[in-house]
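Researcher: We're teaching a course module on how sequence relates to structure. For the next exercise, students receive a sequence and then see the predicted structure as tokens, so they can try to spot secondary structure elements on their own. Here is the exercise chain.
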Amino acid sequence: MTVYLSTSCYGRISVSNAIKQCQKIAGNFVEISAPHDYQSMDDLKEVLKGFRDKGVNFALHNYFPAPKSPFVLNMAASDSITYNKTEELIKNAFCLADYAESPIYGIHAGYLAKAKAGEDGYFIFSDEEESYKTALENTIKFVNNILKYKPKNLTFIIENLFPSPKKRHSLNCSYEEIKELMNSLPNEVGILLDLGHFNISSNILGFNRHKALDKLVNNFFGRIKEIHISENNGFKDEHLAVKENSWQLEIIKDISSQDINKNIIYCIEARKATEKEILNSVNLVNSILN
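Model: And here is the predicted structure for the students to work with:
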């Protein structure tokens, strides 16, 4: 088992160049994410085939493939425009995942309000928002519909999110919310556990992250298909490199020891790190997995 590296660590360049950058550090284990330049589906199929022929293992995540006109992907959207754009992007992701032989496609759970991406990459949310209940119902309906288009060998997985210090904009932020969503969806839908997001939620919502993770692992272990790894200050999704004494390494050691069949993909999302820091992060996680 070897840790994957997210192409989000090398954003704003072509997918092909981002994969090559990841290969320099993580070898043939790459998660394709965002942000990347727009490319046609035919071009992306050719890119993926070329790397697959050379032995690259892929996982696909969220805002990929990049659309011509940028928007915020949101399964919980009530407006038809965002809904249709989200559906189209996911269908394209399904197609590419099948083509790349990716075992998973992971996506964020959704948001209570419309949003646009700021220049710093963080979302700016509208003041008008849905209730949590309505947004959750929207996501459940969306997922049940999109599963009809999913390739047989692909597992659709949903990522936990986090609130901001001032306001709740996101679904799926705590163990209780993950439990509610997972229990409302078919068992075939898996979990993308983002440890950095969980750290933020535990601080802002005031719960014990270790106890909450214990419950998540004990009750939903079989549905955890990917784990995202990055550091932050506990209040902002900073996507920093993994530290040598990180609490996340303890969690990875515990979960990987239980993952007898090696079904879980571990992926580093250190977008705001130097090459040296990313390499160190890869080595730290691989020292546990290997």
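Model: If you want an answer key for the exercise: The first helix runs from residue 15 to 26. Residues 4-289 form a domain with the TIM Barrel fold (CATH 3.20.20.150).
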